Write the structure tokens for this entry.
Amino acid sequence: MPNYYCQHCGTKATSVAQLTANPCYRHPDAPNRGKHALYEGSEKPSYTCKYCGTKSSSISSLTSNPCYRHPTGANKAKHSPAL
């Protein structure tokens, strides 16, 4: 059975409906201000930020830190996983 992940926080769910029905604590607008967003890439042994190239073993650990090359400004938003 495949797993589905939120691109903002790394929350794992067994269906897209289950994932996107709940609020995301790392939503870019504000915590719990929006629903989880589906990460459309595949499961990998490591994930890379699409803006700066930082690598991490999980989406959750990648998105927990600010990105120094994020388009909204240095360290003003979290890393975002590349597909």
The longest strand covers residues 4-5. The mean pLDDT is 94.
